[in-house]
Amino acid sequence: MEQNHIILVVNENAEKRAVFRKRLEQKAMVLEGGNEDAAIKLLGAVKISLVFLIPGQGEEESFLLRRMKEQGLVERIPVMVCDNSYDQERMNRFYAWGCSDYVCEPLSDLVLYRKLAFMLRLLDAEKMRTLLSRKEKKGTKEGKLSEKSYDAMTGLLNHSYAIQAIKKAIQDHPEKSVAIAVMDVNHLKKANDQYGYLFGNRVLRYVSERLTEAVRESDIVSRFGDDEFLIYIQHNGHPEIIFDRIQQLINGYVDNYALSVSIGIACDQVAGRDFDMLFSAADKALHYVENTDRSGYCFYQNDLKTATIH
Predict the structure, then answer these.
(1) Cα 251 to Cα 260: distance, rounded to the nearest angstrom
(2) Residues 111 and 193 in one domain
(3) Mean local confidence (pLDDT), 144-152
(4) Is the previous residue joined to 106 through a cis bond, with omega within 30 degrees of 0?
């Protein structure tokens, strides 16, 4: 399975979604959207690579596509429409609303996987062009951040520059719901003692890469201490989606080392929009996780004793 990509399957029929989810999970991580509203929320919360739309009938057939086009999403997120039978007029309408590919059932695995592979390769190529463009901009005086702004080990922003960037992001986007998380890599000292510091450094770089994959361009990730990371996200009411994604990408094994993380999260609805208050609340939630289960994530609330660890 290609963990770098997430496919969103959209249809109101749970059984039909489950059938395609099972097939698509051979090629990528898969999320489900039961209807257009759920799909739009996921598109705003998660870095979706491709939408696999199984359309309805009548007026609802292209409702999601219309909303995605209105919000400018079809320009950066490809949509593959899988219809129950071939219909020239429906196909034309889907293409007019911005779908990238139109296929029909019955659809063999060979055709499905080849089409997916082609579309995902295009996405990877576009991502590479974007990265190269950013590197070129960083080479100019206008776009280049000081090397002191980055952590030499992981390539992430260091804590002092990240704090400035987060404060500015909160101030510049008062309309956005935000959350700050403090994440700790569990038992890293034990790994250093057992396997050596070179291995521990490799774990830190691995975690940094997975974090970068999990968040979006509007989010901020920083190394905040030896084994601690600071994460800032903007969300639409479902921040748990991103932290589920972080756990899925990170928790597992690096060689024989069982890697897991503990995360404390503070949302502005509970802790306010001041950075210091958000950070303090997230840190308290982190300590609650570490003192309870040692792994998972928890949202700060006034009575942490009743908080749920996910």
Answers:
(1) 5
(2) no
(3) 67
(4) yes
